[in-house]
Amino acid sequence: MSIPTVASETITFIRQMPKAEIHVHLEGAIQPETVLTLAERHDRATSLPTTDLDALRKWFTFTGFPHFVEIYLTISDLLRTPEDFALIVEACGADMAAQNIRYRELTFTPYTHTHLQDKGLTIADLLSGLERGRATAQAKYGVEMRWIFDIPRNASFSRSNGIYDPRVAEKTLEYAMAGKEHGVVGFGLGGFEVGAPPEPYAHAFTEAKAAGLLSVPHAGETMGAPSVRGALHALQADRIGHGVRAIEDPALLQEIKERQIVLELNPTSNVSLHVYRRLAEHPFPHLDRMGLLVTVNSDDPPLFNTTLIDEYTLLAREFGYDPTDLARIARNAFVAAGLPADRKRQLLIDFDEWVASQNFDEQTEGDS
């Protein structure tokens, strides 16, 4: 069977289109080149399987969830000073500029760096580095970033008896509150869903919402629709990271549609992590046709060998989305952004003006 191709006009449209991305992990967006820089900076090259860049890129290629965790923890361990965080944020800004991503909300897990790995870092150190990198990226590349501080859900449950410990959520909430003046706009919940349901975290999310933070938990990735329902009800979710398996519950889908809860979808990630066997099975087009507010995102791009441009190209290649459809999906991410109303309005005006300047008839003919 032949692989569908995407017209060059559509590829150009995707590359030039102003984009926002609301589901991408900062630690999971670090490129191999930056990993080598960090390892050399701290004389920790022996923590890597290789110092050859091409070989390191191959090591980054996803092979399974244990391998994914190995890479993620190795990268996290190399982040040891405020300057390191400034470096990776600035590099993220360069990547945004290369893809014409005007705005990103990056999920970040501060608890990992202050408690799960012994590095002597404080939340002040982390915020200092993040803010410095964000300011540099905006000055050099004209891009904007905000943060979602998320709870590492698996650290909250005892491995021996499964008892929930609220301290991880409470500490992450404390960090998020401290970061509100430094670009933190959302409060999240990440990690492996099995054995770590959303409901116990309700206390922390109630406080976060009361403080004006968006509720943006991961749910419905490795676990099914009940996990999404728990995030929606117990955590008062404004957006749901992944959420694809809500499709298994028609009543839940209807509620998500009626309330216009944003779904942060990540097709390549879902296939890599075996949520779906192949892209043809992914429910993205079905959720979209049903009228849900869907966005497309890259999750942990170098680890899944993808980019946001690749994800939009996937929509065109696998699901037949034309430039009109792609622009509609892209606009959803700006609408869902956790920005002040005046700034969001301006980004939407800029986006709509760009779309209005495009000749959709010619681009659609190129796809036919």
What can you tell me about this protein's structure?
This protein has 368 residues and is of the alpha/beta class. It has 17 helices and eight strands. The chain has helices at residues 8-16, 32-41, 53-60, 65-77, 82-99, 110-116, 123-141, 167-178, 202-210, 225-233, 250-259, 267-272, 284-289, 308-319, 323-336, 341-356, 360-367; strands spanning 19-25, 101-108, 144-152, 184-190, 214-219, 239-242, 262-265, 294-296.
Give structural attributes:
single chain, 368 residues, alpha/beta, eight-stranded parallel beta sheet, 17 helices, globular
Number of helices: 17
Class per helix and strand makeup? alpha/beta
In which order are the strands of the major sheet placed? Answer: 1-2-3-4-5-6-7-8
Broad shape: globular
User: What is the H/E order?
Assistant: HEHHHHEHHEHEHEHEHEHHEHHHH
Show unreliable segments: none
Write down how many β-strands occur, each being a DSSP E stretch of 2 or more residues: 8
**Mean pLDDT score:** 94
Q: Major β-sheet, in short?
A: 8 strands, parallel
State the distance separating the first and last CA atoms. 19 Å
Residue share in helix: 40-55%
Amount of beta strand: 5-15%
- Based on CA atoms alone, the radius of gyration comes out at 20 Å
